[in-house]
Amino acid sequence: MRSTSDFLPHLSFIVNQEHEGQRLDKFLAIKAQDLSRTRLQDLIQTGFVQINGVAMNDVALKVKEGQKIQINIPPVVEAAPVPQKIPLDIFYEDEDLIVLNKPAGLVVHPAPGNPEGTLVNALLNHCGESLSGINGVKRPGIVHRLDKDTSGLMVVAKNDKTHHSLAYQLATREMSRVYQALIWGTLIPHKGIIEGPIGRDPHHRQRMALREKGKFARTHYKTIKIFGRLASLVECRLETGRTHQIRVHLASKGHPLIGDILYGKKPKGLPCPLDDFLDGQWIKGRQALHAKKISFVHPKSQDRLSFETDLPQDIRILLDVLESIV
């Protein structure tokens, strides 16, 4: 009798000499890049990974050349997020949508490592059952997302018709999103376009990178203020909306965002006031990026709505520190 795993979608790989002796989970993370390492480890531990036809549940097992390794992929059962009372900074709300100002540190939707305490949990508490089913179980009402440590404006749909309209505007670039960022150094020229296809970094699961086979991405930028040779305040307008797009594009030019430990690092020899501020008051991992403006056509009224928010306090203080040393 054939087992249930015989009927599941699967991926198969042969271990070559290059990967001899690697941990099983690391080998699969390199080969199955569409699956996170956490997901792969779970599949191994629950018996969905076979070596030469035998299920193995040791994530640290060393693979050998010539072995055939198969991943059987069961369907993911999404757990419905629960409503949680989390404060929301709402700029505008009607029966169809909400425009809100997301603080840095708030994850948009549940994911491994952040099953609760997210914007989705807060929205479910605020809107009740009206969000159910819009854009899936884990992302109800979410049209676009901001990284955990990016602050700023987002629009959320309250019904399917609104979601479809806003998602279409996002895809066709009718929705406008403008960000402000503090970067190390100064872009030359001071105004321009950065283009480069973006895809998952094959060597680092949490990072994106410029990749020949990635998705087309284009960012328009202009420099607003220069702080000597140290840093600059820039405005970025997204023409496309790839994961980490602004962070990847600016880092590719040698000017990563201040505070972005995933795509850059703090330069050596900084003036003491700035060095002390970044090591003390600045939240580790918080990139100096803020979604300052958003504009779209209201799906029902067909009026164009535009919203703008001030820079948050932490970025304003960082600007003050930069001002004081140049």
3D architecture notes:
The chain is of the alpha+beta class. The chain folds into 3 domains: 4-72, RNA-binding S4 domain (Structural Genomics Hypothetical 15.5 Kd Protein In mrcA-pckA Intergenic Region, Chain A, Roll); 78-172, Pseudouridine synthase; 176-296 and 308-326, 2-Layer Sandwich (Pseudouridine synthase). The protein is 21% helix and 26% strand. The protein has helices at 24-31, 37-45, 119-127, 160-171, 245-252, 272-279, 313-325, and strands at residues 10-14, 49-51, 54-55, 68-72, 90-93, 97-102, 151-157, 176-184, 191-195, 198-200, 208-210, 218-227, 231-238, 289-297, 304-308. The strands form 3 sheets. Strands 5, 6, 7, 8, 9, 12, 13, 14 and 15 form a 9-stranded mixed sheet that branches. A hairpin with a 2-residue loop joins β2 and β3. α1 packs across α2 (37-45). The longest helix has 13 residues, at 313-325. It is globular and about 60 Å long. The N and C termini lie far apart (75 Å).
